[in-house]
Amino acid sequence: MIVRPMQSWFRMLFVWNGSVLQSIIPQLIFMGVLSSLAVLTHGRVFGEKIPLSAAPFTLFGLTLAIFLVFRNNASYARFTEGRLLWGNMLVSSRTLMSQVLSYLPESVDEMGRAHVANTLIASIYALKHQLRETDATEDLVRLLGEQRAKELAHKVYKPIAILNDMRSYLAAPNGVPLKSDMTRWMLDTQINDLERSVGGCERIASTPIPFSYSVLLHRTVYAYCMLLPFGLVDSTEIFTPLVCVFIAYTLIALEAIANEVAEPFSLAPNALALDVLTRTIERSILEICGREIPAEITPVRPYQFT
Amino acid sequence: MIVRPMQSWFRMLFVWNGSVLQSIIPQLIFMGVLSSLAVLTHGRVFGEKIPLSAAPFTLFGLTLAIFLVFRNNASYARFTEGRLLWGNMLVSSRTLMSQVLSYLPESVDEMGRAHVANTLIASIYALKHQLRETDATEDLVRLLGEQRAKELAHKVYKPIAILNDMRSYLAAPNGVPLKSDMTRWMLDTQINDLERSVGGCERIASTPIPFSYSVLLHRTVYAYCMLLPFGLVDSTEIFTPLVCVFIAYTLIALEAIANEVAEPFSLAPNALALDVLTRTIERSILEICGREIPAEITPVRPYQFT
Amino acid sequence: MIVRPMQSWFRMLFVWNGSVLQSIIPQLIFMGVLSSLAVLTHGRVFGEKIPLSAAPFTLFGLTLAIFLVFRNNASYARFTEGRLLWGNMLVSSRTLMSQVLSYLPESVDEMGRAHVANTLIASIYALKHQLRETDATEDLVRLLGEQRAKELAHKVYKPIAILNDMRSYLAAPNGVPLKSDMTRWMLDTQINDLERSVGGCERIASTPIPFSYSVLLHRTVYAYCMLLPFGLVDSTEIFTPLVCVFIAYTLIALEAIANEVAEPFSLAPNALALDVLTRTIERSILEICGREIPAEITPVRPYQFT
Amino acid sequence: MIVRPMQSWFRMLFVWNGSVLQSIIPQLIFMGVLSSLAVLTHGRVFGEKIPLSAAPFTLFGLTLAIFLVFRNNASYARFTEGRLLWGNMLVSSRTLMSQVLSYLPESVDEMGRAHVANTLIASIYALKHQLRETDATEDLVRLLGEQRAKELAHKVYKPIAILNDMRSYLAAPNGVPLKSDMTRWMLDTQINDLERSVGGCERIASTPIPFSYSVLLHRTVYAYCMLLPFGLVDSTEIFTPLVCVFIAYTLIALEAIANEVAEPFSLAPNALALDVLTRTIERSILEICGREIPAEITPVRPYQFT
Amino acid sequence: MIVRPMQSWFRMLFVWNGSVLQSIIPQLIFMGVLSSLAVLTHGRVFGEKIPLSAAPFTLFGLTLAIFLVFRNNASYARFTEGRLLWGNMLVSSRTLMSQVLSYLPESVDEMGRAHVANTLIASIYALKHQLRETDATEDLVRLLGEQRAKELAHKVYKPIAILNDMRSYLAAPNGVPLKSDMTRWMLDTQINDLERSVGGCERIASTPIPFSYSVLLHRTVYAYCMLLPFGLVDSTEIFTPLVCVFIAYTLIALEAIANEVAEPFSLAPNALALDVLTRTIERSILEICGREIPAEITPVRPYQFT
């Protein structure tokens, strides 16, 4: 995620870091070359004038707009839902920690409370690693000890396994003796909420926007851009490359951003900063426990957090 | 559902598997022939010039855009709601299983726990078969035994009947003796959630988007496409077939995709992969129980899951 | 509601049953006559040429599109909300029935259980009759007996009165003695959900989309359609009636469909099939009870359910 | 709120009551005069021809459409949310009343039950008066007696104070002795829901759509309308006033309706009929209690309810 | 937030306070100079005519509209969600206060109740200061005493720490002895709701709309505005500056408003009035307690609340 203070309106026009421009340069160069050719040949291909007026572009533009709007809205909805789910994890884990501190009987000592905190944090890290398909071992060893991390290594659904542990620990007679059924239910509700957020993230990660939409939009955008110079060359003449490259920039950039936000758990510049989010949850849980809190995450590149 | 890694922008233009192109070829050939005829006759029918300028197409385009956007949004909303409901089933069944393992008294042995897991998985399979109108017998025999499968054969609402069994089993004095009312209520809440998801899926399956919308959109799309060559032939000349087929492709393809995602439980390439989803739920429940988990579903065709 | 299997793309163009076409024929004939007159007079009225070019239609089109999109979305939102509420009633009543069977003490005999089932079904039928402003007596006599039906005859809010009965029956010491407060609360939650759905349906039925929107849209659609022939006659000549009638068809049909789905509890072809829905709920509740289930509803006209 | 049966398509074109036309006549007359002047002077101001073609209007139209759509959607969302909140109040208060009748111990007599009903109804009336900034005294005296009404007179948040009374009454040992904690919690949940709806209404009433949006839309609409005659006069000639006044009517009327529905608790014709809604809640609560119910509200003007 | 009574349609055109105009004057002057230059040179740059017709602007306009609509909707969604969360805080804290007054045992004296009220109010103020990154010390000292304020000074998540205190106070045996588990759970639910709202606000504050969207929109708006004079100068001649500045005003103003509402917790004129909201919550809680209530907040500038 790019976090960058607002610039003045003028400097904002020339921002480089955080613009999606860097990732679509090849396509824009291609468009520049193509439209320059159109100018040089006056819109002729093999000597034949391509008879495109503005009319077909208005018709094209119709479907293009429909596809772009739909694709962008569907992508952004995935982004905001992903963010909401991680926000819910922060809320549920904080509440669970606070409830454990207030309602668990006195007989549960410091170590028991630290165990709950670590298990909670481990489930969050496990989810991050599952969503990014990275190796969770290091974080799990740090938080749960080597033995438990080893047992978890072969689990497919690690965060769920860890939350399952938490439930057993809080319910089992050999673990923490709860004062009452009601207290158990309060804690179970928060674990349930965490499981719900985990399931929501899995859903987003495993179900992309139907592939056919992407293909259809992609083809329409590029067909539109490639025909554009031949449609404009008669009216905009020498300015054709400038106009075409800029219009292509807006269309291709929007498609590129939509692709990034549609996979909110990836490492792309416009995806969610899961590293920051996990650290925030860790910091907040530890602060509630009165333990020392780790430093905030620093950006991997100027203004860019992952 | 098509699950396919992102291609480079260039190769994406020529993707075949996963594009909806294959299912609308007849219509596109028809459009190609029609627009070629328009070029050959210079837009004349029986010697009479059809006097269509771009103006009516802009007006047509207005309603066409409204219908396409509405139809597509309404269809996609059904798709995402269907996905959400199956995601909720994963969450609720996992939570129920985990609660059963933690909160049921010691006296409930391995077999009792396996019975709960199997009943849970059976309800999911039964829902899949109900939504796809396929025969559930095989899966029910595998999970519940021949006798129970036979009893269920004549039930109209099989998943509900199975969840009803689950509730009786967890509540009945001859079944599992619960420690307390509170525990019963915790488990009942998850069964309730499962019933809610089942009801939601039935609702989507039994209530299509009002048929009149489909007819109206369909007619507008085809009327627009068929008149298009006669409107464009004067300005785009020999390029008319290319332009018309491409515009027709975008419109007809969008209608086709919208039709597929509007019935998210069908076997169409852009519908939900219910086989994968049921297997995922099965795997996750069995992993929580510490039992062996079956392999993941493989695609029926390259990149295509059902 | 129209339930009709998908046709081939070609036959779909000529569908009669389920198209809204049948209800707007007078307006279309009027449009045909008007545009024919425009052709005959070359766009003159009393010898004066009406100087309408395409320009004003683009401007008109703007507001027309805004009104149509808004009206259609608002109407469809009412339709889907109505459907959701009836779906919730199915879920809540099934769950309540299942809970009654599992959790009520043994001392409640067959007759008590049948009484609960009948009361539940009666509340659903009463809601249907209230929403459609039809006479509920017949169904209430069948389900609750003549005496109770008579008492209910003068009630304004019949479904609520029946659900109120249900609550008293399950709570009252002379009725069903509940094992515990917790069980009472579980059952009360489902009754509460039913009351919530009833209230939601009443809200939709009693609050139309603000009337001024309808008037404004209606006037804009007809003004647009009536001026259209005079704007197009110079460019489309003899084809004017065809083009105008088709454009008028798309606009007036959309308004007509939107009017129908905006009142989802009416008997219109695109409204909800409340008869089917009530029967489904009845069937599902009776199946849970292990009682004989009535047949499904048959369509009143080809493909049309009410 | 206007409640009016659907007219035939022809009579609907000339509806007067319920159309927003009556409130925007001065602006339309102004537009008529302005466009007539443009026709008389052939688009000249002080002898100078104003060179406006259709092109700028298409560009203008773009932003105008964006503003109108946004403004209208945001306004209508406030209207539907306001309606939803009042619907929730109906549901919660009915449920609370029904629960009080079923679950309160026998020792609470007729008078106690009537007291609960009256307090409930008083909170609804108090909310109506707070939202409309009218004097609640009369209704409070009628329902709660003169003394209590006097105590409430100086309260800023009257509905909350009344619901607070209700909570104390149901919880306090000197008031109604509840059988159990569970019952108290059931009743408290409904009071909580009522407080939630009250808070939601206060939120809508106290937070308008950001003022800058209104200013921006207003200026764009009027600038567009005032320039329109000069842009159209060359093509539509003598018809300019007719076309301009009609386009202005659609734009200004939409803004006017949007302004009305954006404040759903006002007395405007397109706002919610709070008088009807409060009376409906009163009637429904009293019917549950078996008490005599007051008559329905009659319209203040033909078809118009407040 | 601007709160201003509606003006007559004519005076509304010249509103200054509350219009976003004041903050975009430099850009508009720049546009005025640029378009005047275009008129003086007849659209020539270094003697070369810039060949821009209306056609490219229609194509540009397409993407511009998509970006503006998306950006504005996404921003406004953040505004309304922020408002909703603060509304929920009002509801939850009022309910919690009311429950504490009704359900806490008699043994909890005036001072205990005042302590709960003050802690509640302090958490709201702490959230406001956290969101606005201002110093909370003064308010915390006033409400919680100097010692507690000092302890909180080093906390990163102050509102959560204060709510955590509240939970301990209501649960701890040395604090308030609760009558029962059920009562504890009722109070805990409200604290949980407050934590949920706090987490929601943190989410909005820490996750901006993806930066790339802002850059893309910004560039498109300014490129469009800067090219506009050259596209219009041939048709609108001397009127070009007027038309261009007005169109630029609508576009740039919309971007500016969207930027403001996208950060609903800032001090911008179109952000939320957090000072008013915190004071309202304080007033309402104190009124429930029967304590003296502070005066309402007065605007910092005419019509402007922060």
Automatic annotation (TrEMBL), chains A, B, C, D, E:
<dbReference type="InterPro" id="IPR044669">
    <property type="entry name" value="YneE/VCCN1/2-like"/>
</dbReference>
<keyword id="KW-0812">Transmembrane</keyword>
<protein>
    <recommendedName>
        <fullName>Bestrophin</fullName>
    </recommendedName>
</protein>
<dbReference type="GO" id="GO:0005254">
    <property type="term" value="F:chloride channel activity"/>
</dbReference>
<dbReference type="GO" id="GO:0005886">
    <property type="term" value="C:plasma membrane"/>
</dbReference>
<comment type="similarity">
    <text>Belongs to the anion channel-forming bestrophin (TC 1.A.46) family.</text>
</comment>
<keyword id="KW-1133">Transmembrane helix</keyword>
<keyword id="KW-0813">Transport</keyword>
<keyword id="KW-1003">Cell membrane</keyword>
<feature type="transmembrane region" description="Helical">
    <location>
        <begin position="12"/>
        <end position="38"/>
    </location>
</feature>
<dbReference type="Pfam" id="PF25539">
    <property type="entry name" value="Bestrophin_2"/>
</dbReference>
<feature type="transmembrane region" description="Helical">
    <location>
        <begin position="50"/>
        <end position="70"/>
    </location>
</feature>
<keyword id="KW-0406">Ion transport</keyword>
<keyword id="KW-0472">Membrane</keyword>
